[in-house]
Amino acid sequence: MAESKVGIVTGAASGMGKALATHFASQGWRLALWDVNVKVGEELAKELGPNTFFVQCDVSSYESQANAYLATWTKFGRIDALLANAGIVERSSIFIFKYRGNKVEDVPPAPNLACTDVDYKGVLYGVQLAIHFMRHNPGKPGGKIVVTASNAGIHPHSSYPEYNGAKAAVIQFIRGAADVLRIKENIYINCVCPGIVHTNIIPPEMVAAVSPESLTPLDTITQAYAGCLADGDTRSGVILECSGKQISDIEHERLTFKNGVPSTRSVTVWDPLFKQIHGEPSGLPTALP
Ligand SMILES: NC(=O)c1ccc[n+]([C@@H]2O[C@H](COP(=O)([O-])OP(=O)(O)OC[C@H]3O[C@@H](n4cnc5c(N)ncnc54)[C@H](O)[C@@H]3O)[C@@H](O)[C@H]2O)c1
Fold first, then answer.
1. Is 160 a catalytic residue?
2. Of these residues, 125, 163, 188, 225, which one is catalytic?
3. CB pairs under 8 A, 24+ apart, for 103-111?
4. Domain 6-254 maps to which CATH number in 3.40.50.720, 3.40.50.2300, 3.30.950.10, 1.20.1250.20?
5. pLDDT tens, residue by residue, 47-64
């Protein structure tokens, strides 16, 4: 019998990460649960049984992720999927309202951009390391990656301007990287964009203020992930709006250029430049020589 699949769940100690870990453990996956919350993460790994283990990891640190990947590889000897789910909202206000009375020479302190570090840089670090480790998978190299972005990355809301930007960056990164990852690395990367989900990231009072049909059940998120991670699912670069009980592929809503071909050319790969940046040609059938 084939060995069960190995997945990494980041932000596994709470909310969607916990739901994903619980779901995929019940499906027989072997899982590495990564989180900064050691106590809760360890308890969850114990609860989910011997096929899961906890790794303390701060996804905003490349070194921390590299160590967590190595620990996961040492334990399981392969990595089939990265469920890059950890995320936070902003830790300081870019609007600096509280400094409005400052004298002009009294420049406000730099913002705390931990949200960008966790939500965007954490995804870039995770994907780069996934490429490295998935190249070594025994049998067929490659694997799958699903990232939790947010509806806020598509339809921004004013409470979280930094978060909107970080999640939009994640979505655009996935759109731009998916083809090359699929063609060159046999890695399929997709994106789940939740609406409002009742987890620890948002105050319970805000959840109470939302009408029930606007709340997204945790089950909708696990279903979206399960679809992308199912055997034989070959989608890549797909952006899934997961709101209420509906999972919608919104990739077809990608904006078209108003100026047609001249503007399209501005984002068509010219292989000499791709090679200059990345060291080899893109492999994309649409690339210009
Ligand atoms: N809840 C929502 O309404 C909602 C909506 C859209 C998107 N999201 C996104 O869903 C994902 C999961 O969030 P959630 O709602 O389950 O929140 P949550 O707060 O319940 O869980 C987030 C988990 O991530 C962990 N974490 C935070 N910083 C980390 C770091 N640097 N390294 C590793 N782990 C870290 C936390 O300890 C926690 O266990 C996030 O990416 C979030 O932005 C949430």
1. no
2. 163
3. 111/162
4. 3.40.50.720
5. 999 999 999 999 999 999
